[in-house]
Amino acid sequence: MDKAKVYKNFINGEWVDSVSGHTYENRNPADDRELIGLFQKSNAKDVDSAISAAESAYKKWRLVPAPKRGELMFKVAQRLMERKEEISRDMTREMGKVIKETRGDTQEAIDMGFYMAGEGRRLFGDTTPSELRNKFQMSIRQPMGVCAMITPWNFPIAIPSWKIFPALICGNTVVIKPATYTPLSVVHFMEVFEECGIPAGVVNMVTGTGGGVGEPLMHDKRVKLVSFTGSTEIGSRISSACAPDFKHCMLEMGGKNGQLVMDDADLDLAIEGALWGAFGTTGQRCTATSRIIAHKDIVKKFTERFVERAKKLKVGNGLDESIDVGPAVSESQMNTVLEYMEIGKKEGAKLLCGGGRVTGGDHNYGWFTQPTLFGDVTEKMRIFQEEIFGSVTSITTCDSLEDGISKLNNVIYGLSSSIYTRDVNKAFVAMRDVYTGIFYVNAPTIGAEISLPFGGTKSTGNGHREAGKQALDVFSEWKAVYIDFSGALQKAQMD
User: Is the whole model's pTM more than 0.85, yes or no?
Assistant: First the structure.
């Protein structure tokens, strides 16, 4: 029988069991025989305790000078650096993506910590001239209170860092619900905060299901903001839950990202980008390249070479440094991907490689799918329109740059996009006319950096952005301040 460590919730600076008395298993998606640990299956009472702790801690934390908050964030980033390999290996064990990628995931959290530490000495507002004599005016940021965070499994520490660091630097306190499949990465994050001396109650973590933890978290009136990354379906529910109380919500949801390959593109570079964009993280990225729109003059050559390269990708346990593609995060996610493979076949798309599960030997104990490419894909097909979140991509032909842009824009999402071309004019036209929140030139649709805003248009989100200085706008409120030192009543525009 498996023996595994029991991990606890982190509430008010203490590691505590759920009042439910129940736990759930977290297993390695590359080898379901390995039990990673037992985690608390929490309920509304646990959420209530965490929110109470955060609400109480907020009274003092908001008054800590922002530069001092930044110094603590800097310490956290340094400690993450020291624990990078340990955290990354555990992330591969619980999430599945290859070790090189989980190291990048942890590095992104480190980068965000250092970046937001610096914001503690900025948090800039504006001063502007008044219309009136002897009057001064400025804008300042103010914190909001308790921020709830519901995070996904595909970036188990990077995305929590996008939310936690800017929230804290602005003076808020936090309650986070990690993804059910990947709680250990956030446990490690909480350990680092504890090791660095975060005051009790400033950060709190409650593990469990969406119904047991997410629902009470988003409905509690003491929570001032809900920051969510995940599916469009759940994001819509969160938006509805927040609306009655006019609670702020930040939603980062789905994507159906397209890579344009023009007739003048460097095909070797475009193929490298498409392979990484489509099959990095096993396609389990909201920015994954799930559509390739190739010019008619090069589509045949591009397709032949892409298939040749895709067939050589090595699928397996991500702790093996030689592996290119890891497993799906769970059996249910694998089955969803396999279902879309069948949908593509039934719709009349041409299966060019892959199309099923990887089996045999140790693969039988994990949730592995073949890197899959469909050709002859049209705009009306579901595999063109719907997010798959797996190792599947497709090729659609375009007649011109304008036709390619039209097809790229013809989905409900607008997260990321890219173009491969040697023509600077084409690059700028596409940069202007493609309606997404992220755009790349001669690079794949994945690979965002923390110093620029991350987010998308249309059904991808609700207009907010993570990362960069723009993240501060999510986790703070603006206050306009006027100081009249004239000694008389002045009536602004009327005077």
Answer: yes
